[in-house]
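Hi V.,

You were right to ask for the full record rather than a summary. Here it is.
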Amino acid sequence: MKQIAVLLLLSFGAMLSSLASTQESAADRAASLRLQLNELEIRKSELTDELQQIEENLKPENIERALSGVGSVHPEELRAQRTRILERDKARVRNQLDQLEIKRSQLEAAIANADNAAYHESAGVNPTTGVVEPNRVRYRSRSHKNTKKKKKSKSKPKSSVSTP
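Predicted structure:
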């Protein structure tokens, strides 16, 4: 249930970011996507740990240990049932890892696109037409250099000859 909630949260976050992307700059979009990618990597790590634990639990000696306190006339049925449950959990976690891998590749592509758009925005180039938009280019005027005047030195020049 926790995994489903996290996946829904990630999906909702991706949906919100796509809606907000029309109003935010490409650099902000790229930062948001990188944050999502970081969260995805954390989730992938958690699922990988869970998968390793399930694989450890699937070992016959661990199944025996898990069922050691349970008395039954047919212990082989209990072992088979435990194995089926663990195999189902393993398949579920692998499916989630596969979904995260797909999402990761989509996020990486979106980050590359957002970085490209941010570069074009900073250069004042319309990314769809490739045309420089003069009102978006920020030129530094040269007049700011003329506003600072050099101060004249008020100190007396040093003379090399001393007078008695």
